[in-house]
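Sequence, please.
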C-alpha cells in the first residue's frame, strides 16, 4: 500500500465521523423546535452550550479538511446547517 493510498484512506475515515457528528448536531439543534412534551425531545433543550461547543469543533474539523483537501459536495451540504457556510466559503 503506497503512502498516497494510506493518505486517501485516512482522509476518508476522518470524514465519516465528522459527517455523523454533523448530522447528530443538526438533529439535536432542530428537534427541540417541535411542539411536543415527550421527554426525548425536551431533553435537547438543556445542553445548548455543549452543543454549541461541538458545533465549533465540527466546523474546525471541516475547516481542517477543507485546507488539506477539497471537500466533497455532500460535505458542504453537511457543513452548511452547522453554520459553516460563511466560514468555508471565505477560505
Amino acid at each position: 500500500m503506497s503512502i498516497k493510498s494510506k493518505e486517501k484512506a485516512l482522509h476518508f475515515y476522518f470524514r465519516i465521523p465528522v459527517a455523523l457528528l454533523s448530522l447528530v448536531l443538526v438533529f439535536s439543534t432542530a428537534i427541540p423546535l417541535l411542539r411536543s412534551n415527550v421527554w426525548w425531545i425536551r431533553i435537547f433543550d438543556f445542553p445548548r452550550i455543549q452543543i454549541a461547543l461541538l458545533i465549533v469543533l465540527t466546523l474546525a474539523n471541516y475547516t481542517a479538511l477543507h485546507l488539506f483537501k477539497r471537500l466533497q459536495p455532500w460535505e458542504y451540504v453537511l457543513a452548511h446547517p452547522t453554520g459553516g457556510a460563511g466560514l468555508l466559503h471565505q477560505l
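Helices lie at 3-30, 39-42, 48-68, 73-90.
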